[in-house]
Structures are given as structure tokens and as C-alpha cells.
Amino acid sequence: MEDEGDPLIEEKAPVGDADSGAIAAAPHESVSGLLERGRASGEINAWLGEVPYADFIGVREDRDEHGRRFVLETRPHNVGNPMLPALHGGVVSAFLETAAALDTLAQTREPRLPRLVNVTVDYLSSAGVKPTYARCRLVREGRRMANVEAWAWQDDEDAPVARARLTYVLGAPA
Predict the structure, then answer these.
(1) 2: burial class by Cβ within 10 Å (0-12, 13-18, 19+)?
(2) Structural domains of the chain, count
(3) Which of 57, 86, 108, 164 is the most buried (most CB within 10 A)?
(4) Cβ atoms of 74 and 115 closer than 8 Å
């Protein structure tokens, strides 16, 4: 008997080449077109639509008086410890990684897809189940690498709940 697979499980797209990164273009649009469109408009939320996990955990881009920031919406499946309650550390880490990758795309001299090489996350305090914000800073952009800092907070930006240092390899210019 031949196994036809589970009809409830969607087929995943094949893993692309090394420069495919986390952001994929719609079938009718090239990756370079997607990158240029996002950079020209300054609208990072268009890129977020191409990252299914970011949508699942509830990441979106926002602006405040200090510039670009990212928001992690409150979602029941983001809870790691229902007794406190607190956000799952993996969700906080994924939020910082997503924010840093998108911010790097927006800030580099040329639109190049960043591939994560290394990340160090410091969890500074428990993240309650409420909206969480992140801001990023491109520390250094070289010819092939970028170093980024990201921090997440809830009530006060001066009291972060987590911070991350990330290193990316930058793909070929789009």
C-alpha cells in the first residue's frame, strides 16, 4: 500500500540555496524585487509576510519617536511558563533574531540577504505575557559580514528583558 501522506500537513517548500535566506519572494516576484520594494517603501511588514514563523508568533514592525521598532504581539501559544505566566525564551530569541535580520536588510548599504552565523542571547528578566518590543542597531557592516545588537523590553526600554548579539554573513548584492 502506497502512503499518500497526511492531507492535513502542508508540503513544505524545498530548502533553497545558501543565499535564499529567511525571506522568499512570492512566485511572481524575484527576491531582488522584493528586497528593493521593501527598501524603497521603508515598509518592513511586506517582508514579514514572507516569514511564516514571524507571522505565527506575531511579529510586526512599528515606529515611535525613536524610530523603527518591532512588536511581539501577545499570543497564547507564545507562553512558556503558564504558572508565572511568562513568554517562552525561544519565542523571545526568535523575536530578536527576526527583528535583527529584517533591520539588517533595511540598513545595509546594498540589499543583501543576511544568513545567521552566530547569536548570543542574554535573558535579563522574565518576560511577562504582554506586548514586547525590540530595537536593533547595526554595529558593523563589512564586505561579507554584519554585526548587530538587538534588545527587547516590555514596559521600559531602559529595562530590557533580553538582549542579543548577532553575526550575519551577507549574501551577494541583489
Answers:
(1) exposed
(2) 1
(3) 164
(4) no
